[in-house]
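Hi Prof. W.,

I finally got the Branched-chain amino acid ABC transporter substrate-binding protein prediction working! I wasn't sure whether to trim anything, so I left the full sequence exactly as given:
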Amino acid sequence: MKFPLLMRRRVLAAALLAASCATAVLAQNPAASAAAPIRIGMIEGLSGPFANTGEAVYRNLVWATERVNARGGVKLPGGNRPLVIERFDSKGQTEEALSALRSAIDRDITVVTQGNSSAAASGLIDAINKHNEREPSRQVLFLNYSAVDPVLTNEKCSYWHFRFDAHADMRMTALMNVLREDKDLKNIYLIGQDYSFGQSVLREARSQLAAKRPDVKIVGDELHPMARVKDFAPYAAKIKASAAQAVLTGNWGNDLTLLVKAAREAGFEGSFYTFYGNALGAPAAIGDAGIGKVVAVADWFPNVPTKDSEAFYQSFRQRFPNPADDYVHMRMQLMVESLAQAIERAGSVNAAAVAAQLEKVEVKLAGQTARMRAADHQFQQPLAVAVMDRQGAPGVKFDVEGSGYGFRVIRQLTPQQAEQPHSCNMARP
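And this is what came out:
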C-alpha cells in the first residue's frame, strides 16, 4: 500500500519518538538496560477520519510512559524495566482492531490498550477472553481509556478488561446536574453516532430527561452514520427548524467538529451539551457563538482551579508545544500510573498477577485521586463540567488548541458523587 507523504512522515516520526524515548531511558537509568522494555500495544485508528483522535491518544500515552521511565522505569525483582508504546493502526474498524490484536499477541505483547470505539472494545474483550482461556501461558490484559458504552463494565464485564474512563451513564449524570438547572430550556434535540456508544448516550439522555426534566420536550432524536457524513448541513437545518434551544450529543472527533460547525453556519443559537466538545477543533469551529453555550463533561480540564493541575498542564504544553497537539487526558496518565503500580506490586508482568493488583490500585497525580473498583473494573475518579468562554475571562487562564477559547469549570463531582451501581457478574480465573 502506498501512503501519502504526510502519513509516511507521521509513521516515521512516531517510530523514531518511541525508539528515542526507550533509548533515553536506558541511557539515563543503566539498571533498566538489564531487562527488555515492557511493551504496551496501542490499538487505535491512526488513519482515516478519526486519525487525529488516535494521534492525541498516542501523545498522551508517550508522555505518561516518559514520566514512569524518568524515575527509573517499573521496578521489578530482576531490575527496572522501561515502558514503551507500540502502535497498531485499527483504521477505525473493529475487524482491523482484532487483526491488530492478533499481531500484538504474535509479538508477545501482553498489555494492549484501546478506546476510541466501544464497538471495537467489545470485540477486543470477546477475543481476549477466548485467547486467555485457550492459551493461559500467554494471557493478555486490556486497558480501556475511552470506550464508554456502559455495557462493557456491566453485562460484558471481564476479568481481563479495565476501563479508565467514566462510562456514558456517569458522564450523562454529570451533564444533567447542569442541564436540569437551565430553567429556560424547553426544547432539546438529541443526535448521535449510530453505533453502540451513540445509541447508549441517546437512550440514557431520554431516561434522565424524563426523570430530571420532564418539562423539557425532545424535538429531535436521531442517529447518523459514524464517520461517513461529510456535510452536516441537512442535520443542522433540521435542528434549527425544530426550534430546539439546545443539542445534546455524544459525538466525538470529526463527527462533532463538523456538526457544530454546520450548526453555527445554519444560524443555530442554542446550547450544546456534549461529551467531547472541549477539543479536537470544536471550539474553533463554533467560535464566539459557543461562549456560554458549549458545555462539556470530562474527568479533568486544564482550568481546574488548583496549582497542581496548572503545573501538570503547563508541563504537557512544554512537551508538546504545537497548539494542534493540545489535548491532554488526565485519565490516560492515571491509567499508565496504575499499570506501573500494579506490575510493581505483582513483582511480575504475568497478566493474571497484574490483573489481581490492578483491581486494587489507587493513584494520585496532580491533585487528582482515583481508584479501580474491583467488582466491575470501572475506574472511579472525579468528573467536571465546564462551559466554553473566551481565554482571559474569569476561570479561563488556558485556551484550547490556540483557538482563543477555553473551558471554565462550573461543576465538580467527587469520585463518590460520580460513582454508579453496576450489574457485572464477573467470571474470575
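The first strand starts at residue 38 and ends at 44. Does that look reasonable to you?

Thanks,
D.
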